[in-house]
């Protein structure tokens, strides 16, 4: 019989401890803190049974002083561990070790499917692609998630919580990476982008944007809509597209109740209530309500025209139609004549 490579391996009873195997760990392994059990007659570690070392800034308690010192760096901003390649700083040595793998290309955590990962937590998340486990359920809409962190982020769509605030303009975000990406719209950070396309040289701050860009060169669109057959380079783009067919609009405006298919559409709409235009062009100072409009505006300065008409080769800044107006008009006239 063919063995499932993603099934947990069996350990015969040999009288000795089995070797720890990653695939015997639960999906949320490493997500709960280890609490050692003490014998009934052991004295408590603290007179009140709690953590004896308290953070003076936030009151959080720790069992050991080194853990408190590491935590305090989140308040002071201290980053004593420096990368010898790019001099980026980190608060903990383990974070520096993980970062250095972006320079060396080392991916020590391997899945049986062949994919490698920089961090064990990334491998744990990836494993759910094979197992299909979605053990974390939203109590409001019952949507399932494979990671607790994804559930926490999702719940903010119900509560409206936006805990990550831009220090430059005060705009808040539900997801940390969105806040980080937004901060880069305020001006050049002076840092070399960590991801650079080997084909065209364009740099990216986020790995997801880099991978999406690479697929544009490859021309691969493996995800196809079962209703109309349209192809997409990423599964989440297909999911968003399918809402056109289903009519689903999961993002409501908290001001007027109007619903939208995409969060970006909701963000753009909310600017009509607030008048907010947080995305400012570093070249001319024009401001925009959403990052996509700023991105398109930048092309007026760079001269970039990435979309070509299939008929005449004329270039455009947007892909509203891959046929220019003159070619469309000519085709209509030709149809009417013939």
Automatic annotation (TrEMBL):
Biased composition (Pro residues): 37-46
Domain C2H2-type, residue spans: 53-80, 81-108, 109-135, 136-163, 164-193, 195-222, 223-250, 251-278, 279-306
A single GO molecular function term of this UniProt record: zinc ion binding
Keyword list, A-Z: DNA-binding, Metal-binding, Nucleus, Repeat, Transcription, Transcription regulation, Zinc, Zinc-finger
Compartments (UniProt record): Nucleus
Location, primary (coarse class): nucleus
Region (Disordered) residue spans: 1-53
Signal peptide interval: none
GO cellular component: nucleus
Source organism, top-level taxon: Eukaryota
Stored Pfam families: zf-C2H2
Recorded family membership: Belongs to the krueppel C2H2-type zinc-finger protein family.
Protein name as annotated: C2H2-type domain-containing protein
Classification lineage: Eukaryota, Metazoa, Chordata, Craniata, Vertebrata
């Amino acid at each position: 019989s063919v063995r499932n490579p993603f099934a947990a391996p069996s350990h015969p009873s040999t009288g000795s401890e089995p070797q720890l195997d990653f695939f015997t760990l639960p999906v949320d392994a490493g997500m709960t803190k280890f609490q050692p059990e003490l014998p009934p007659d052991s004295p408590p570690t603290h007179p009140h049974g709690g953590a004896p070392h308290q953070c003076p800034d936030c009151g959080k308690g720790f069992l050991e002083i080194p853990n408190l010192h590491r935590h305090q760096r989140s308040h002071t901003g201290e980053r004593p561990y420096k990368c010898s390649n790019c001099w980026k700083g980190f608060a903990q040595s383990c974070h520096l070790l993980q970062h250095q793998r972006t320079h060396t290309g080392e991916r020590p955590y391997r899945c049986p499917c062949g994919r490698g990962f920089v961090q064990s937590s990334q491998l744990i998340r990836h494993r759910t692609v094979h197992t299909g486990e979605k053990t974390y359920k939203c109590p409001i809409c019952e949507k399932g998630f494979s990671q607790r962190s994804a559930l926490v982020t999702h719940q903010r769509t119900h509560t409206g919580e936006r805990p990550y605030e831009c220090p430059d303009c005060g705009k808040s975000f539900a997801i940390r990476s969105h806040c980080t990406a937004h901060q880069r719209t305020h001006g050049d950070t002076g840092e070399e982008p960590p991801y650079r396309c080997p084909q065209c040289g364009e740099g990216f701050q986020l790995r997801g944007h880099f991978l999406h860009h690479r697929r544009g060169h490859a021309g691969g669109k493996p995800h196809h809509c079962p209703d109309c057959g349209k192809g997409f380079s990423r599964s989440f783009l297909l999911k968003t597209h399918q809402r056109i067919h289903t009519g689903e609009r999961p993002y409501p405006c908290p001001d007027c109740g109007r619903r939208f298919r995409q969060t970006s559409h909701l963000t753009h709409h909310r600017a009509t209530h607030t008048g907010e235009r947080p995305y400012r062009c570093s070249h001319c100072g024009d401001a925009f309500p959403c990052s996509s409009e700023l991105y398109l505006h930048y092309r007026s300065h760079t001269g970039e025209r990435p979309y070509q008409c299939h008929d005449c080769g004329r270039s455009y800044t947007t892909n509203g139609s891959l046929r220019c107006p003159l070619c469309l008009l000519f085709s209509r006239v030709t149809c009417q004549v013939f």
